Structures are given as structure tokens and as C-alpha cells.
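Entry 12.
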Amino acid sequence: MATKNNNLSDYNLESVPNSKGMRFAVIVSEWNNHITDNLFEGVEKTLLNCGVKENDIVRIDVPGSFELVYGAKIASNYNYDAIICLGSVIKGETDHFHYVCNAVSSGIKDLNITLDTPVIFGVLTDNTEEQAINRSGGKHGNKGVEAAITAIKMAHLNN
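Predicted 3D structure (C-alpha cells):
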């Protein structure tokens, strides 16, 4: 979703399905944690606001965005209603950015094909740190909020 003229944190609570009794795993990259911690905060606040109990939100930290896929695969063994992957990859001077972004997006896609649990892509892939900050609680809102709403809606496909 493009963020131009769009706040990632905007949602209508009345349009979100009831999420009471649902359980969510949130896989969080430790790399760029000043960004990913903000994303997690957006996820957590939104899930709580939508009726999820605090003890039904489990955070699992992994070293970097590349490791989100394996973390989600492991979490899928524990009967969560949805798994949310949060990361931040900021473009540098080498092709590393493209390799990580491609691997993570393909890995999450593959999990969605093979698992019966939805895996949500909440990974920022920005050109600059400023863009990442703007999308993790800054002027464009918080992509974590969007990921949480997506997780709830996708989890309801299985219920």
C-alpha cells in the first residue's frame, strides 16, 4: 500500500471482525530495532484495542529480517490464529538490500502457500531511515497497525 496521502494507522474499528479469543505470534527483527520496536507497539496496541488479550500476543525476536521466515515457520507449530512478521530493511550502498527484501518476501509468500496459518508481511523496505521512521509511528502512521488489522481479517478466513 502506498503511503502518499494515506495514514497507515487509519482503520474503522467497526469494520474489524471480533478478535476475542484469538492468539497472535509477532516475529520481530532485532535489526533496526528503533524501527521494529515501534512497529511492534503499533501491532500490540491495535490487537489489544480490537479485543485480543495481552497474554494472547506472543513476541518472538529474531536477529534480522532474513530470519523472520524461520521464526514464523517455528511459530506455526503453536496454533496461532495468525503470525505477523515485522522488520525494517533500509537500502544501503550495496545489493544486500535487494537480496534480503526478495528473500523475505518470497519466504513469507511460501509460508502462506504451505501453512494453514496466515503469515502477515509487516516488513518496511525503505530507501532511507527517515522513510522507515515515518512509517513506524511518524507522519505516515504505523505499518504495525496495518499489519495487525490484516492479521485479524486473515485469521477470520480460517474460522
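Annotation: The first helix runs from residue 33 to 49. The helical segments are 33-49, 68-75, 96-114, 129-134, 143-155.
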